[in-house]
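Repro:
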Amino acid sequence: MTDDAGAFDAWWGWPPPVLDPAGPYADSVTVLAWALFAMGVVVTLVVVAALYVALAGPARWKARLGGERSIWILGIAFPGVVLIGLLVWGLTLTASLTDAITGDEPRIRVTGHMWWFDVEYLDRQGRVVLRDANELHLPVGQPVVLELRSADVIHSFWVPNLSGKEDMVPGRTNLLKVQADRVGRFGGVCAEYCGGPHALMGFVTVAHGADDYRRWLTGERVATAPADPQAVPGVMPSATRRTPASATVTGLNGLNGQQVFMDSGCAACHRVEGTGANGMSGPDLTHVARRLSLGAGVLPNNRGTLIGWIADSQSIKPGNRMPTYNMLSADELEAIAIWLEQPR
């Protein structure tokens, strides 16, 4: 991977655009936003015109502007009608944001942590069928219900392309419907200040076609980018994808990455399915090789950035809860990274 390609992957979609809806629930929010911007311009022009008349207008206009009738019209009737009209229209327009949940929608549970997102895909009985972190995958053209929770402080879930914001509150589950109408990759952020590296608490939402989504959920290889990756905003060019299947379980130096991982205490915080690593305070690393980014949207995902993150995540995302592992040798870091790259 070239440096240019790495930077391209890392920053594509960041910051997420707030006026580029990719689904019905974001579309109504965008229309309302443009209407408010337009009304703001109209009100500003009226105020500027009144100020000009008051300061430099003809004496007859000044007298009218200061009269009781003008005060009733411009000071009470005009703002009252505008605000009430916008309120009614806005509530009507955004009524779809609280569409009834039918129970047929796929459900995904997203839990906010300081400072990352835990993502669990649920079956119809509410059982977890797949666990991941900092990456949300959706089928195109289908409403999906998100169960939003928090494990510590108040966070806020926001993918501007797909929906409005929804708070993630400790002890409470908030439901949010999202839908993507086109294939692509969309940036998301925590929109509620939650301390420390809040500004580096992001995630990636990937919208798949129905078949690709099914293959992704069942662990099959998802189709690579379209023939022209630039034609679909947010789709990672195939040249930048990692190829974990070619890696070996041991590092290039012969070290066993799993053993180094366990001996270094990583398992106390991280879970890797099928191993003795069952820590729950950090992101699940079972499928880390399939993710597009590391550190909650901070870095593109490749072996070099993975090694760098393990060695010294504090220099990349100061204040995050993962300690620095600068006591590990380069060979040990590489062995862990190669082991984590294995498809599971």
